[in-house]
Predict the structure.
Amino acid sequence: MSEARELDLALMMADLCGYTALTETHGALQASETVLRFVRLVEASLEPGVRIVDSIGDSVFCAGEDTLAVVRTALRLREAVGREPGFPRVSTGIHRGPIVEREARLFGGPINLTARLTSHAAGEQILCTAPIAGAIAAVAGVDCRPLGEQHFKNVAHPVDLFELVQADEARATIAIDPVCRMQVDVDSAAARVEHGGKTYWFCSKHCGQVFAASPGLYT
């Protein structure tokens, strides 16, 4: 049995938003292809010294000793996802703290908190804690906006929460397909439906038809 090592690491988790809706709408095969694309995007976004610890379902867990490298990985991943056509949004959480490594696995409370941050984040949002926010000043063009204290399940004390925002970020006009929850560029959407005085955009004609048949299920 290998010995346990105590480490202090920056931790990042990223989840695909709306994965269940994607699976139900487009089937398990396309959903699995989306997950594999996601993992490849994460791999391509890794900064030196940051590694993928685990990949479970629609979630990827990364870690590294350099806080700024982990932050830059998260920002690169968000940009890469934003450029990926017909892809779900991604929610991300970043935290740093003492953990234990044993038999190539990581254990400790900071991992639980990172997972809670990720679940709390909205699509495209990167949430972090005070240890991460304190290092952000060294990253040019990145703002760290305080969101106040937040209580999380199985976390003993309230957590000071921050959102990472890239100041010079330029994005296409993006809508969310209400059926499968994918990101859709409104200029190249496969379908568009007017309902209740609002316009909805879709990744495929199939999603547009499903919405048109029962709009009340998705609005």
In short: DSSP finds five helices and twelve strands in the chain.
